[in-house]
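User: My instructor asked us to take a sequence, write out its structure as tokens, and then describe one feature of it. I'm not sure where to start. Here is the sequence I was given:
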Amino acid sequence: MEINLAIVAGWFLCLAGGSFLGYYARQTIAKNQLTTAEGKALKIVEEAEKKAQEVILKAKNKAVDILEDVRKKEEEREDQTRRAEARLEKKEEALDVKVKELESGNLALEKKVAEIAAIKKEIDEARKQELKRLEKIAGLSKDDAKKILLQLTEEESAELLLKRIKSLEIEGRDVLEKKARDIMTYAIQKYAGTHSADVTTSTVSIASDEVKGRIIGREGRNIKALERLTGIEIIVDDTPEAIVVSGFDPIRREIARIAIEKLMADGRIHPTKIEEAVEFAKAEINNKIKEAGEAAVYDVGVVGLEPKLIHILGRLRYRTSYGQNALLHSLEVAHLSGALAAELGADVNLAKKSGLLHDIGKAIDHEVQGTHVEIGIKILEKFNVGKDIINAMKSHHEDYPFETPESMIISAADAISASRPGARKDTLENYLKRLEELEAVANSFPEVEKTYAIQAGREIRVFVKPDKTDDLGAIKLSRSIADKIEKELKYPGEIKVNVIRETRVVEYAR
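Assistant: Let's start with the prediction itself. The structure tokens for your sequence are:
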């Protein structure tokens, strides 16, 4: 036991001694390392100081170079300034010389003006003295002599002057009329729209006559429902494979036509389906009205109109005036107005827009009291349309005075569109009646075989019976027909009577 303790104590002493020796060795090593680090740090600091001195030296050298450059540039600027001042001084000296020359020239001009004034005064004095001497010799004053001379000239040339004035008036009127005709003709040729007279009925084609009974319905309930919902008279008669829709309101008539076509396509025809078809037709018509208004605005090239106003314009598609479609008429007036305005130097855009909207009141004139012009003015004012457009469109029926050149253009274009042959039903009927009367006058002569009116009634070709008259008789007949036309008919311009006498002899060689 004691031996073990001694061994343990020996081990402890060895460990303690080793620890002390290790600690002393570490202290020595640390001191050596510290000495080495301090040496390295001193070297680094010395190198940094050398580099800093080099950088500072370079910066000083660069600053010196910059200062030298600045000094050189400053010297160059001073040289330029001195040269500019020298040039300015030379220019000032030259200007002083020119001012002196101008002043001397002005003095010379003033002297010459004074001399000319003196000469003019002397001439006036000499003229006055000569006039006094002439008046004394003639015994007449200047005014009296002038009056006598003018009176003699007027008396001698009065007839010649009157003839010349009258000739100038006639020539001027002819030139103006020719110019006006040329402008109107050009405008009409530039836009020649087609016309189709609208009537008060529409025809609906059906597949077979069996459909007629289904449209009428039991005890007529289907047709009564259609007439009640559309406000249109539906005529189902013996006309094969057709039903007539009659009514003066084109919109209602079109609604009824679309509804009937939809019912026939569906196959089921009873009051409930009829109501659905009518509602569908109303929506379809509303879309067509919108599309018609947009197409019209696009066609004319008008911009800036509100959508509601364009929709009202589209209603004119289903409005007629004397059988003429109101929307087509408005389009034609717009194009004609634009062409006339271009020829006359007026505002083309204003003329087009005013022409397109001149009959806008007709779209609702059956719903609102007043003339279509008054209604149109109210519509345009409601949609804040320009005053210049209202002034241009309101005078087309001469209800209001013409305030602008465009207003006269709109009136002329409206008259052209309405009076063209075939444009309106009454015009077409009168036109055809006039041609029939013209042919009847020529056919009243016994020698005439047949007559044709051509060139819109400006010429008639009369074919005579060759065995009833000879060549001399044909000449007399043409004069007789012309005299009778002059007495019995009223017509603008002149009518050419062309009498044709033709003899044909036929023989056969056998």
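For the description part of your assignment, you could build on this observation: Strands lie at 201-205, 233-235, 242-246, 320-321, 324-325, 448-454, 459-464, 496-500. Try explaining in your own words what that tells you about the chain.
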